[in-house]
Structure formats: C-alpha cells, structure tokens
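Help needed: design a sequence for this.
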C-alpha cells in the first residue's frame, strides 16, 4: 500500500512540466498557423524588421516610436527581435514572418511559465490551466501574437515577470530578485503600457517582505529594483548624450499628465473605466457579447481582495495592475485602444478564476475549477475561428512568392508594383530587398506583381 502514494507523488511531480510543454506546443501551433501566408506586413513591421536586419552595434539605443509621439524608453525590443532574427531568420530566408514566429514562441514560453507559477501558487491545476487557456486563446491576442510588434512582446515579458512573483523569486537570492525586476522593466522597454504590471511586480518586492516582518529583505529588494532600473536605463542616457537631447521619450503622454496635474484638464476617470471594460470585452469575451462583463470583473476583484488578503504579493500582481491602469489612463487625454491593455489580461482572467473557485470546501472548489476548464476548452474552436478574421494580410503569400521569382532572375529593376491594393503603409519591395535584391532607380524595368502571383515586366517609356 505504501508504494501507491509514492507512485502518485512521482506522477504529480511530472504532471506540471508535462502540462507546460503541452501548453507551449499547442499555443505555438495555433499562433503560427498559416503565418507565412498571411503575415501582417504594415509600416511598423517593415521598420522594425528592417532594423533587426542590421548588425547589433547599429541597433537603436531606444525603442520603437509610438503613435502618440516619442519612443519607448529602452532598446530591449530591438535586442530581442535581433536575437530572433539571428536564430530563426536563416530558416525562413530572413523574411519578416520569422520574427512573428519568434515572438509567438516567446508568448507561448511565457504561457508555459505562467502556468507553472499559477499552479504552484494556488496548488490547483484547474485554476492554472483555465487561466492560461483563456488568456492564450483570446481571439484578439491570437490574431496579433505572430507579429513583429512591440506591444505583444511587452505582454509576453510582463507574463514572465508576473510568474516570477508567483514563484516567490523576490524572496530568493539577489540574483533571482534582480532577474525578476529586470524582466518587469524590460517589458516596459518593449511596451510602455506594461508599466502597470511592473508597478505590481515592484510593489510585491516591497510589500510582501514588510508584511512578513522582513525589513532587511524589503531594503535589499528596494536596492535591487533601483539598481536594475538604473542599469537598464543606461542605453537611454547614452542616446540622450550622443544625439537625442531634446527628444522626449513619451512626449504626448508627459504632456497629458502635465495638463491634468497642472489643473488645466480634469482626469478622465470615467473614460478610463469604460476603456478598460471595453478592452476586457473585446479581448476576452469576443466574439460573444456579455452584458455587464465589467461589473462582473469588479465583483471578482472584490472577492479576490477579501479571500486573498493574506497573500499581498498575489494581490500585487492581480488587482494592483488593473487599478493602476485605470488610474494611469485617466491621466491620458486621448483615445484608448484595446491593445493598450493586453498585458493586463492575465491579471484580469486570474482574478476571475480565483474568485469563481473561492469556495468554502476544497472539493467544491476543485469541481468548479474542473468545470471552468471544460467550459474554456469548449470556447476554443470558435475563438480560433474568429481569430482568422482579424489582422490578416493574405496578399503576403503573393508578395513572398513573387519576390522570390523576381530575385531569382537577377534583373535590375526600378520598382515593384502590384495590380492589387495593399494597405497604405505596406511595401511591395520590402521582401525583395530582404531576399538580397536591389532596387536600381536608374533601371528601365518595372515589375508588376499580379494577384494570381504572376510577374510582369514593363519597360519605362523613354528609357
């Protein structure tokens, strides 16, 4: 009889990593499905993949420009994208969908790590599996995951930073604490909207040891946070010193905050609340409609606050990022897009699953958790189908194949055109140039890519 508990214990020891591997493989497969045919090749992707094609020494010392002016505060996005290009690029002729596959792999790795962290923290496989499945199979998230885009990279890094707190890395060695802090701040480098997750992570570093009466650990963690952030901001300072003086990293955001703090404009709290509720609905609930989803999330957050009051670090990475985002975006006097909140979805979904399983009986809690997981599985097929209707560029396959044909002929050409319409910021010449082709503006030939993939050569009149 004594062998049975030992065998069960051994099986449970392997169940967590095996589940994480399955989650990684499944989420990666659905994220990259068909990406080589429909990669969303817009201006941002052309700019960023073009930068990743440079030597490492030529990469910028700051991040991508933002649509509200300025740029992100550090170069981590380009450093990681460059690494993806070096590792995966040669397998895909260095075409930009290689970057999308790399970013999807980073997202799936983050999901696997988050699964292990939630499982260990809650001791519930059902809470962990349901949370990660709902986050990873969101139609909105899936449609953007295999893309060269800094908000999705920031989301992946924010997931890993959250996981390190759930795994209590801030209580471990200084190296572990520094790694966790670095991940949180690198997420902000990649996408400024991840700052709210970083606030939660840093708060856990300080509040958790103070609640447990360990002031020495709190002081060490405060020093670690300060040192890590200072070191990671050295590239930004170098950028300012070399030639970026007068260039504000987040000019529009700073201007909005200043207008509110100076009393020129009131904070737009109601707009911020509506923006968050709308984002949760469009990211997590679509393609269905659920009236009162925002109120439901508020109720779940209240339940978690009461039932998990003894676990301040868990509250710091679930409830605090959501509250910080609502407060922070109330100071932003511009429109709010759903993708601003991508990095908050793990916190929102975990709040729901924790609240739904907050039962007085462990048996009932396990039954509810298992039921939630089955329901989440039931939603997956329709979510996958709906994801295929968003953020796709089927013309990418035609451009890819035609660019290879044009390059293989080694004929100097003046320009590449299409007889079908591309998005305004896209370019029919980018893939050809990535493959090694050269546009010669003095050439007398223009290539025209047809919608069926055939290529026509036209001689410029008078040449």
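Sure. Designed sequence:
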């Amino acid at each position: 009889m004594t062998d049975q508990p030992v065998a069960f214990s051994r099986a449970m020891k392997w169940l967590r990593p095996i589940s994480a591997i399955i989650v990684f493989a499944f989420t990666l497969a659905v994220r990259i499905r068909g990406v080589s045919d429909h990669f969303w090749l817009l201006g941002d992707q052309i700019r960023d993949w073009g930068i990743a094609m440079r030597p490492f020494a030529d990469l910028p010392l700051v991040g991508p420009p933002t649509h509200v002016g300025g740029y992100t505060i550090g170069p981590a996005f380009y450093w990681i994208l460059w690494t993806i290009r070096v590792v995966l690029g040669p397998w895909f002729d260095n075409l930009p969908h290689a970057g999308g596959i790399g970013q999807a792999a980073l997202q799936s790795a983050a999901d696997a790590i988050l699964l292990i962290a939630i499982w260990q923290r809650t001791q519930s496989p059902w809470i962990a599996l349901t949370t990660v499945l709902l986050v990873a199979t969101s139609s909105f998230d899936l449609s953007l995951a295999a893309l060269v885009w800094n908000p999705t990279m920031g989301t992946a890094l924010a997931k890993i930073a959250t996981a390190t707190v759930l795994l209590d890395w801030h209580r471990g060695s200084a190296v572990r604490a520094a790694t966790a802090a670095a991940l949180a701040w690198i997420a902000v480098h990649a996408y400024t909207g991840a700052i709210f997750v970083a606030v939660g992570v840093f708060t856990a570093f300080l509040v958790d040891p103070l609640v447990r009466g360990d002031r020495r650990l709190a002081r060490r963690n405060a020093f670690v946070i300060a040192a890590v952030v200072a070191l990671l901001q050295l590239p930004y300072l170098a950028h300012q010193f070399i030639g970026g003086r007068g260039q504000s990293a987040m000019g529009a955001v700073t201007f909005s905050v200043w207008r509110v703090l100076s009393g020129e404009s009131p904070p737009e709290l109601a707009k911020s609340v509506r923006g968050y509720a709308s984002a949760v609905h469009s990211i997590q609930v679509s393609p269905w409609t659920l009236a009162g989803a925002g109120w439901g999330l508020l109720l779940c957050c209240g339940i978690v606050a009461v039932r998990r009051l003894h676990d301040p670090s868990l509250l710091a990475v679930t409830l605090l990022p959501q509250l910080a985002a609502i407060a922070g975006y109330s100071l932003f006097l511009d429109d709010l897009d759903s993708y601003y909140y991508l990095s908050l979805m793990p916190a929102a979904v975990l709040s729901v699953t924790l609240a739904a399983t907050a039962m007085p009986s462990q048996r009932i809690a396990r039954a509810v958790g298992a039921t939630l997981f089955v329901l989440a599985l039931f939603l997956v097929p329709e979510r996958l189908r709906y994801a295929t209707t968003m953020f796709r560029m089927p013309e990418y396959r035609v451009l890819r194949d035609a660019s290879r044909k044009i390059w293989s002929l080694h004929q100097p050409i003046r320009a590449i055109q299409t007889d079908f319409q591309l998005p305004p910021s896209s370019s029919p010449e980018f893939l050809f140039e990535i493959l090694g082709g050269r546009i010669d503006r003095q050439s007398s030939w223009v290539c025209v890519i047809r919608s069926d993939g055939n290529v026509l050569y036209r001689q410029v009149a008078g040449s």
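The mean pLDDT is 93.
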